[in-house]
Amino acid sequence: MLRDFDSALLPYAVATVFLAFGVTYRYTVWVSSPGARRLFKQGWRSFLSMENFRRAPTAVPRMIATYLGFQKFLGARSHGRWVAHQLIFWGCVLAALITFPLTWGWFTFTSATGSGPGYEMRIWGFKVLGFDSLDFFGWLMFHGLDIAAVLVIPGASYFLWRRMRDRGAVTGQRFAYDLVPLIALIVISVTGLLLTFSSLFLHGGGYEFLAILHMVSVVFTLIYIPFGKFFHIVQRPAAVGMQLFKYTARQNEQVFHCRRCQEPVDTTPYVENLQGTMRDLKLDFAEWAEYCPRCKRVLRGNAYLTHVKKGFK
Q1: Residue pair 71/85 in contact by the 8 Å Cβ criterion
Q2: Looking at residues 249-257, what average pLDDT do you find?
Q3: Largest alpha-carbon pair distance within the chain?
Q4: How confident is the model over 208-220, as a mean pLDDT?
Q5: Is residue 110 helix, strand or coil?
């Protein structure tokens, strides 16, 4: 009932409300598209299947750890990108687990003496643990956001450097979509660290300005999440259901083979699902899903030689 709500955090609370409405709206629009809707239904059907659970009870937690936690699919592309993404991911997760509960007063830290060093951590009014703010654990409790910032800065800096140097990334990037999220993460992290630096070493000098700058950057980022690249954070959990859908089909040995070379393409239910989506979108080449990537290139090349180039002779 907002008993422990800190009015100084009102802008953050308002931003989280906008974030909730924005995510709900964007997610609804995304799921309403034919392709996403079909995959979304198949994913939930696989996730809620008791037969799948009996056959592979550890599949869901393993895929959650693989695709959501450690994102091993990124490691196959680049070890540097994987490390940077892990730094950003776990830094943002840590920051979210601290920031949102504190904003709404779900977490409180109280001292029986009024000035410490002994504190009690309470969740929704119930005491969870007590700790000394002067020991190592107490330092971790009060500097969790600083730790998150230290994780995020090198990860975001790596991606920003890569987008300045990598020719493939430079040609396809957009400032508002690709660069603004990275800049926002760096600004949030740096201003957060400067707040700690000001309180510890400058006796609070410049603290008010830094607090406002930090607040503005956080509020902007929260409102930006549903409408920019950060939205993939919300979309990513759907990949677990989709991977489970493909995994269970492989367990049943439902593998679709290329019509031309007979090499495995993907699982049969996945290919059928893709063809159904293409029919929903009125794309008149659903049969192309039945060929492997190499055969598609060969067929397109032959079609060009026999039809397009022939017309120039």
Answers
A1: yes
A2: 76
A3: 93
A4: 91
A5: strand
* DSSP conformation class of 67: I
Q: Residue 18 pLDDT more than 90?
A: yes
**To the nearest whole number, what is the mean pLDDT of the chain?**
84
Asked if 239 and 227 touch (Cβ cutoff 8 Å), the reply is no
CB count within 10 Å of CB 264 equals 11
Integer distance in angstroms from the first to the last C-alpha of the chain? 79
Rg (CA), the chain: 25
Cα dist from 69 to 63, 64, 88, 155, 282, whole Å = 9, 7, 12, 16, 37
Residue type, 273: N
pLDDT at 105 over 80: yes
- CA angle 149–227–94, rounded 5-degree value: 25
Query: By C-alpha distance, which of 300, 269, 301 is closest to 285?
Result: 300
230-249 residue pLDDT tens = 888 888 887 777 777 777 77
| pLDDT at residue number 114 | 66
- What is this structure's pTM? 0.78
Q: Which H/E stretch holds residue 200?
A: helix 180-201
Consecutive H or E run containing 167: helix 167-172
- Angle (deg, nearest 10), helices 10-32 and 207-224: 20
CA 88 to each of CA 24, 42, 187, 272: distance values in angstroms, whole numbers, following the listed order: 24, 30, 14, 36
